[in-house]
Amino acid sequence: MRNLSIRSPSGSLGGERAIDVADASGTLLFDVAGRRWSEPVCEALEIPRDWLPRALESCAVSGETSEGVPVAAGAGNQAAGRRRAHVEPDGDAHSGLAPSAS
């Protein structure tokens, strides 16, 4: 297993192995409050840190295409929908149905 790594479906478009925090949280290996991979969980499951991609905020630029077009880290369906609906963490709510697990 020396070449194993965990990848996001959209995580290498810009040339760098990266994942956005919305998708990272779905792995259950991510410390959402700390915005980083959970060392205790990874250690307990014996998952080496170098298997995991860099976790970025959804709007962060994770690289660029060969034509120089910036590539955003991305977002899961529900995370992107919440932002699109202008729902902020001040008590507003957003409910959405999607065929994915995001």
Can you describe what's shown?
- The protein is α+β, with helices and mostly antiparallel strands.
- The chain has a domain at 18-84.
- The chain is built from 3 helices and 6 strands, in the order βαββαβββα.
- The strands form 3 sheets. Strands 1-4 form a two-stranded parallel ribbon.
- Strand 2 (30-31) and strand 3 form a beta hairpin.
- It is flat.
Q: Give me the strand/helix succession.
A: EHEEHEEEH
Assembly of the depicted chains? single chain
Query: Helix proportion of residues, in percent?
Result: 10-25%
**Main sheet attributes: strand count, strand direction, barrel closure:** 2 strands, parallel
Quick take:
With 102 residues, the protein is of the alpha+beta class. Helix content is 19%, strand content 17%.
Present the secondary structure layout:
Elements: E1 18-20, H1 21-25, E2 30-31, E3 36-37, H2 39-44, E4 54-56, E5 61-64, E6 70-72, H3 77-84
Parallel strand pairs: 1-4
Antiparallel strand pairs: 2-3, 5-6
Question: Can you tag this structure with a few keywords?
Answer:
single chain; 102 residues; alpha+beta; two-stranded parallel ribbon; two-stranded antiparallel sheet; 19% helix; flat
